[in-house]
């Protein structure tokens, strides 16, 4: 829908411009933001959440900043890096966008990195979560999270709270390996023991045999990271196999209990403890308003991807305000560094050194609130940096 | 020892599920010689029908299962009469291109109507969890799959081998001209068979939602498994795909349990080994059609 409106508008503008011969002056009045999101394919819910949140933000805050009109151009990459690259090229060369943003998965964010560097325009990563991403281009800024942030915190929390033996089940791709390694490092440093380690293929239909292996290893808890869409499958089969009754808890970074899916998972998920950056049940007034507005506009609750998109467009707005509408990419990235604001997830800021996000990480437990399942936060770790970088 | 049996049980259930999902394809591909890559779309349709009836209209799960079969079969017969029948005489490439296109359309349509999130069917409490039988963990849902699929297999084999309809079908496939000369209504037999295959897919889709998950990309994600079952089993009978499903299901589960590092490749390795050994599948005819 976005695309069509933009197309007709630019087409109309082009006609006016070619008649009057005022091309440069006209083009200066708009700032174009190219969003590359998975709108189809297995990651489509990520793309939809981000697109929705950006629409909501622009409804609430208007589409003009520092005298410039903001135009959004959405391109679907279905989370396939080759398509991401093509989309980024088209956006930069044909549409002459001033920002590229979105990026549902790590390989997509990485595929666009060299293009952002070459074109000297900011790449705002609103979903992908491996640590290395921001190191691949000085123009990358992230408003989502890194898996190191949540996985280390849950590792520390677990050893301090009586969980000594853990079996891990993680998806076999970059974010899964990040989650596993950061968790393991912190968990074993605190005296915990990893008794079983299983990496499941990304396109995995059935968790049963892996879960049986976990059950036979008799750990205190399973540390699990699977892409958001598979969380439901995992929890269902965890309950089916009676791991909950065997006293094996589930812990992990919060992707497995994403708000988008949580409500359909059934009561087996009750009591799951995760560390994550956002819960729709975050108790601030700002979040209550955000959730209410999002529900009203789109009919479901926002997840952590929605809030990352909401903050991503906020960062773009703030950067433009700071440069007074100057669209020079280098100046924009400079303007983004050190930004600090209150997000629906709590206070966040952009680390001026790594251009990565600094934010609170919350420990949450799945509970029933008014008949619906929510991640209820009960402990806060404040201003967590990406530990993937501070380690070096 | 008990863990071996638990795995064997899980493997059999998984294999049975693969069989119900794939045997409709074995029927269209093997018996009717039609490459229907949209098979998974019919499975997805059945899954979504069952999900909507149970979750939104409060139907009991066991009442929704037959309807999953019926609705997929109905969609199948409509498409067969309007689209598919024009492609029986065309080349396999035309059939592949057409059905792949149909698959993409079904994915887009379901994505548009139902959204792309994964959905689950609310199961009755009686089907949830495991019980213990001499130390072997028996999943109730998986046991139900084994029972339903087992009965279905026996019924199917009886229909094909023993009934008048079975012999008409085999005659219609082997030599359509001679068959119609003998008074067999070949188009009708084909339409009925195709619809039945689609119905089975729909039932499989409804049964698999709990274990494999159900989302609009179902037909694309599981196409490869259906094809593996049919190629390994050979497409000229029902026994072939049945034994292939069991073999692959057990192999897949055992592989993931005992060698989790290479688990997902076990199913492919088995396929390669079997196809080197018997290029037409385990029970394929040696002479090509």
UniProtKB/TrEMBL annotation, chain A:
Q: Which InterPro entries match?
A: BCAA_transport, Leu-bd, Peripla_BP_I
Q: Which residues form the Leucine-binding protein domain?
A: 30-367
Report if keyword Transport is assigned.
yes
Q: In its keyword annotation, does this UniProt entry include Signal? A: yes
Signal peptide (from-to): 1-27
Q: Name one GO biological process term.
A: amino acid transport
This protein's UniProt keywords:
Amino-acid transport, Signal, Transport
User: Which superkingdom?
Assistant: Bacteria
State the family named in the UniProt similarity comment for this chain.
Belongs to the leucine-binding protein family.
Q: Please identify the protein, giving its name as recorded.
A: ABC transporter substrate-binding protein
- Origin organism is Bradyrhizobium guangdongense
TrEMBL record, chain B:
User: Which superkingdom?
Assistant: Bacteria
Chief localisation class:
membrane
Q: Which residues cross the membrane?
A: 12-32, 61-84, 96-114, 141-161, 182-203, 223-250, 262-279
- What membrane topology was assigned to this protein in its record? Multi-pass membrane protein
Q: Name one GO cellular component term.
A: plasma membrane
Has UniProt tagged this entry with the keyword Transport? yes
| MF (Gene Ontology) | transmembrane transporter activity
- What's in the keyword line of the UniProt record? Amino-acid transport, Cell membrane, Membrane, Transmembrane, Transmembrane helix, Transport
A biological-process GO annotation: amino acid transport
Question: Has UniProt tagged this entry with the keyword Membrane?
Answer: yes
Q: Where in the cell is it found?
A: Cell membrane
The record, for Pfam families, names:
BPD_transp_2
Q: Which family does it belong to?
A: Belongs to the binding-protein-dependent transport system permease family. LivHM subfamily.
Quote the protein name from its UniProt record: Branched-chain amino acid ABC transporter permease
């Amino acid at each position: 829908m976005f695309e069509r409106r933009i197309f007709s508008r630019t087409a109309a503008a082009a006609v006016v411009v070619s008649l009057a011969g005022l091309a440069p002056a006209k083009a200066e009045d708009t700032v174009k933001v190219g969003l590359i999101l998975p709108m189809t394919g297995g990651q489509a819910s990520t793309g939809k959440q981000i697109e929705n949140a950006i629409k909501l933000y622009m409804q609430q805050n208007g589409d003009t900043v520092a005298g410039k009109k903001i135009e959004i151009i959405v391109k679907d990459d279905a989370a396939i890096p080759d398509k991401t690259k093509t989309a980024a090229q088209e956006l930069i060369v044909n549409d002459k966008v001033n920002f590229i943003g979105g990026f549902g998965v790590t390989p997509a964010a990485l595929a666009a990195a060299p293009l952002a560097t070459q074109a000297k325009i900011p790449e705002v990563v609103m979903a992908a979560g491996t640590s290395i991403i921001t190191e691949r281009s000085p123009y990358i800024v992230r408003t989502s999270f890194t898996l190191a942030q949540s996985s280390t915190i849950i590792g520390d929390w677990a050893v301090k709270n009586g969980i000594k033996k853990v079996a891990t089940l993680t998806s076999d791709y970059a974010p899964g390996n990040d989650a596993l390694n950061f968790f393991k490092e912190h968990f074993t440093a605190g005296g915990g023991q990893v008794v079983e380690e299983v990496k499941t293929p990304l396109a995995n239909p059935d968790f049963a045999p892996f879960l049986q292996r976990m059950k036979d290893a008799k750990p205190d808890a399973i540390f699990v990271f699977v892409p958001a869409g598979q969380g439901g499958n995992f929890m269902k089969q965890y309950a089916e196999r009676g791991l909950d009754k065997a006293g094996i808890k589930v812990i992990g970074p919060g992707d497995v209990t994403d708000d988008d899916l949580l409500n359909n998972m059934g009561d087996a998920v009750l009591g799951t403890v995760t560390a994550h950056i956002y819960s729709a049940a975050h108790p601030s007034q700002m979040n209550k308003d955000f959730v209410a507005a999002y529900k009203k506009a789109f009919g479901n609750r926002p997840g952590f991807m929605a809030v990352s998109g909401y903050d991503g467009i906020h960062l773009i707005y703030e950067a433009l305000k700071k440069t007074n509408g100057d669209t020079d990419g280098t100046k924009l990235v400079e303007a983004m560094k050190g930004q600090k604001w209150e997000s629906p997830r709590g206070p966040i800021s952009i680390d001026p050194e790594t251009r990565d996000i600094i934010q609170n990480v919350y420990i949450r437990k799945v509970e029933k609130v008014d008949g619906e399942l929510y991640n209820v936060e009960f402990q806060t770790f404040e201003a967590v940096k990406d530990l993937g970088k501070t380690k070096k | 020892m008990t863990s071996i049996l638990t795995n064997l049980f899980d493997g059999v259930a998984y294999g049975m599920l693969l069989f119900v999902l794939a045997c409709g394809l074995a029927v269209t591909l093997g018996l009717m010689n039609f490459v229907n890559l949209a098979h998974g779309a019919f499975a997805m349709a059945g899954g979504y029908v069952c999900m909507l009836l149970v979750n939104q209209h409060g139907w009991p799960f066991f009442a929704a299962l037959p309807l999953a079969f019926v609705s997929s079969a109905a969609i199948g017969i409509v498409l067969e009469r309007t689209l598919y029948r024009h492609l029986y005489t065309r080349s396999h490439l035309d059939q592949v291109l057409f059905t792949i296109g149909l698959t993409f359309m079904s994915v887009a349509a379901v994505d548009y109507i139902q959204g792309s999130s994964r959905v689950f069917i609310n199961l009755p409490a009686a089907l949830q969890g495991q019980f213990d039988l001499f130390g072997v963990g028996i999943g109730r849902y998986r046991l139900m799959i084994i029972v339903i699929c087992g009965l279905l297999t026996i019924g199917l084999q009886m229909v094909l081998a023993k009934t008048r309809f079975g012999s008409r079908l085999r005659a219609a496939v082997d030599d359509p001209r001679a068959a119609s000369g003998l008074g067999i209504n070949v188009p009708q037999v084909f339409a009925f068979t195709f619809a039945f295959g689609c119905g089975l897919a729909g039932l499989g889709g409804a049964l698999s939602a709990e274990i494999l998950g159900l989302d609009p990309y179902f037909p694309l994600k599981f196409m490869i498994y259906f094809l593996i079952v049919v190629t390994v089993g050979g497409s000229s009978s029902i026994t072939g795909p049945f034994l292939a499903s069991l073999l692959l299901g057990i192999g897949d589960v055992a592989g993931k349990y005992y060698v989790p590092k290479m688990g997902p490749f076990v199913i492919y390795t088995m396929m390669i080994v079997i196809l080197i050994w018997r290029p037409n599948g385990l029970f394929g005819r040696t002479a090509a059609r």
